[in-house]
């Protein structure tokens, strides 16, 4: 149970083996307990680091998967702009409906003459 060889967790069997070995080496219970606790804390610290890395990777993949910003996509979809009130619309049909309802006295722009509302 070297600190450098820890892969992320310390099993109960590993702990028992560590206690037996340290007892045979002549260490008392307080020394064994403090050493075992240190090793287990290192394992939990390693697990925490691995969990954070895994979560960061998962978040990055999720962000790539969803890919686009909804506000930016919605703004890009508004391609028609009313010359009078500067309101933006996504398609010519909506633009024509807007123009006829909001600006009835103004003649239609040439790009809206052929559009069916």
Helices and strands, with pairings:
Elements: H1 12-24, H2 29-66, H3 70-77, E1 80-81, E2 88-89, H4 92-102
Antiparallel strand pairs: 1-2
Helix pairs in contact: 1-2
Protein name: Zinc finger protein 706
Subcellular location: Cytoplasm; Nucleus
Main location: cytoplasm
Number of helices: 4
Shape: rod-shaped
Rg over C-alpha atoms, rounded to the nearest angstrom: 34 Å
Strand content: under 5%
Question: Helix coverage percent of residues?
Answer: 55-70%
**Sequence of secondary-structure elements:** HHHEEH
Quickly list its features.
mainly alpha; two-stranded antiparallel sheet; nucleus
If you had to describe this structure to a student in words, what would you say it looks like?
The protein is mainly α and 117 residues long. It has 2 domains: 3-66; 70-112, Double Stranded RNA Binding Domain (2-Layer Sandwich), CATH 3.30.160. The protein is built from 4 helices and 2 strands. The chain has helices at 12-24, 29-66, 70-77, 92-102; strands at residues 80-81, 88-89. Strands 1-2 form a two-stranded antiparallel ribbon. A hairpin with a 6-residue loop joins strand 1 (80-81) and strand 2. The longest helix is centred in the middle third of the chain and has 38 residues, at 29-66. The N and C termini lie far apart (77 Å).
